Amino acid sequence: MKQRDKLPSLLLLPFPPDPSDRHLLGAAYRPSLVAALSRLKSPTAAARLTVAVPCPILHGPYLRSKTLSWPHAQALVAGIYAIVAVVCSQLSIATEVNGGPGSVDTTVVLIDHDRNKRFSSDFRPSIEPNNTVVVDLATFASAYHPWNLIFHVSNELGTQLHQAYLRFAEGKQTLLQEQLVPVEGGLTMNVAKPGPSASPPQTTGRATVCLGGTFDYLHPGHKLLLTAGALLLQVPRKDSGESCRYIIGITGEELLKNKMYAEYVQSWDERARNVISFLSQILQLSDRGWKDAAPAAPVEEKDGDFQASFRNGTIRVQCVRIQDPFGPTITVADIDALVVSGETRSGGRAVNDRRTEQGWRALEVFEVDVLDAEEVSDEATKTESFASKISSSAIRQQRAQANLQAK
């Protein structure tokens, strides 16, 4: 194995179709994802892939005062993770973090980029974060490196993006020609809207965001939930002395002892470390790239309470062990938003009922989309059976069966 094979690879996808519904996303991105995932699948090693999707999703005239439409942003992330999950299922590629040989650990990252923006000849890219977790292409190129392979779509839009990225990334990594891999692009449709175009309603960032889950064998469904929560954060200026908080409740082992194949449930510590490691790929910014891929300060690990800081302390991530359906939502008063999935929607209502009983203000609840196979696959794949294939229970079952076969 080459030393660089241990590095993550990058897939640069061109601008999404407009509108970005699941069928159009599949038509646009599926061929490229199939090519990249197929290339990275190895019978002897695990691989990692970052899928970067540029889109002008941020609005606002100043670097520090950006806003985004959370429903549109999380729907785009959900659509791409759904395609990844379907493709990996069909290619027999494991999707979980630390999945072992044959797995591809894929992370979707949104990039704020305007194809019409022009840069002066003396422009020097640098890390310029704004008040959201989404960064522009120049910042991404400055902070995310080095790569094993860089996949780019071989059509006009894909080539333009690839060239812009390479310009911004100049000097960050010496790339061989064999590391630049063109892949097939799909069909991208943009439907002209009648009348003047208007940006969708913007979502104000929140100082403290909370969500919960088991996060056992971290997979695309978990990654979508964690990314969607991060997109809600209002990130303070680095010189403000303030920080936003991202509180993640992770179910304790006691509540999981009756799960299917409970003996294969990962320890709470391992699940918490995987959550923080995944979020570091979205939140950490350093011109040293992967050399500083860990949090800026070591993770503070206490029993049932892991904490890490990112972006000069402006983002604070806290993983806490929960032993009931409510967790920190009924012990911490100053939470602003709760992120739920379709499966935990009723839990969000129960949380607000309890907070009201305690005389606290109700949390604003944000619901993420589901990873629906029927919306991105041409095959007659039942969503229910598809969901079961990418669940933590299915992964534990596979581990149990592999263990039996090895005996």
Walk me through the structure.
The longest helix is centred in the N-terminal third of the chain and has 21 residues. Helix 1 crosses helix 2, helix 3 crosses helix 4 and helix 5 packs across helix 6. Helix content is 30%, strand content 18%. The chain has a single domain, classed as HUPs (Rossmann fold, 3-Layer(aba) Sandwich). The strands form three sheets. It has a seven-stranded mixed beta sheet, with helices on both faces. The chain is an alpha/beta fold and 407 residues long. It is built from nine helices and 15 strands.
Looking at this protein, list some descriptive labels:
single chain; 407 residues; alpha/beta; Rossmann fold; six-stranded parallel sheet; 15 strands; 18% strand; Pantetheine-phosphate adenylyltransferase family protein
The CATH topology comes to Rossmann fold
User: How does the major sheet shape up?
Assistant: 7 strands, mixed
Helix content: 25-40%
Oligomer: single chain
- Report the total helices: 9
The CATH class designation is Alpha Beta
Q: What is the CATH-assigned architecture?
A: 3-Layer(aba) Sandwich
From the spread of the alpha carbons, the general shape counts as globular
Radius of gyration: 21 Å
Q: By helix and strand content, what is the structural category?
A: alpha/beta
Low-confidence stretches: 380-384
Strand content: 15-25%
InterPro entries: Rossmann-like_a/b/a_fold
GO molecular function: dephospho-CoA kinase activity
GO biological process, one term: coenzyme A biosynthetic process
Protein name: Pantetheine-phosphate adenylyltransferase family protein
